[in-house]
Amino acid sequence: MPNNKNAIVRYQCIDEMLHNWSHYYTTHDIQEACNDKLSELKDDSEPVTLRCIQKDLNFLENYFGASIMRYTAQGKRCVKYEDPTFSIFSPAISQEEKNLLTEVLATLGQFKGLDNFDWLESLRRSLNFEQNKKRIIEFSKSPDLKNENLLGELFDCISKKIPITLRYKPFGKPESSYTVYPYLLKQYNNRWFLIATEELKERISNFALDRIQSIERKPDLKYEECPFDLEDLYKNIYGVSINKSAKIEEIVFWVSDKTAPYIETKKILESQRKLSWNEREGLSKEYPNLPKNGCVFAMTGMVNRELRRELCSYFEDLEVLKPRTLRDKIIQDIEKMSEKYSNNEPTVR
Fold this sequence. Notes:
CATH architecture of the largest domain: 2-Layer Sandwich
CATH class of the largest domain: Alpha Beta
Distance between the termini: 78 Å
Mean pLDDT: 84
């Protein structure tokens, strides 16, 4: 890689790290990051030295007018821009991009309880965006949802890749402390959940925001990227719970004619599809009592409690055919419910 391209890569890396006020970066950290970046680009030049980084910092100050702070944090000598909004890479945006950002800011601004999103208004004013008076998109939310103010703070920690320590109190259990790497905010059934992995554990956990008592940022800890592709993983999961012992498998179920249009237009999982007549005829050999009416659907997914609840919510209009383990579990659920309702009088006193 020519030296001028090498320099551009270094300036981009340094600018990004000086711009990030959420972490404490030393010149050693910047040196390591620059060498990692150049290594990714398969650059065969000599490694970047500390002396080179110092010269680059001086160049940014003298040529670009950057004000760089040298300070002590966590017992280390760190550097950052004095102005967190400053960057030597600040391209102008087009009118089309400005119009799109206006809609994005308006949509984000409709979330209530995002106390840490005060910067949205500052950004709107600094870009001279017009404020939409009429709401175009509205998101459903539970009026009883607690800790809405955590949404903004957690959003900030995820976007800036900052590890956090949670004080968390599950229902019916004592309060515990968890140090986690936050990845995703997900809404399910009018509740917000934080999807994260715990420190030293490579498994996905979910934390309901209304059960989080407090959070503490840990900018001195190294952030670990998610070991899974969350977008791909949640394509096969209904809700937020991940059953550690479960696997992704095919789920086949029959639906009555009156309910089939609802199921077909509002998929339970993304992979859901309606079986063709030929596929259904082949299934009839395996299930001779399969009704002639109705529709049969198939999807691939992970069986968890949320999925069982959803399937059971259609009552007699939906019957799970396979896997057998899921069908048996639903039969057990129905039998337990039947015991509760077997007498006219309530069993709960």
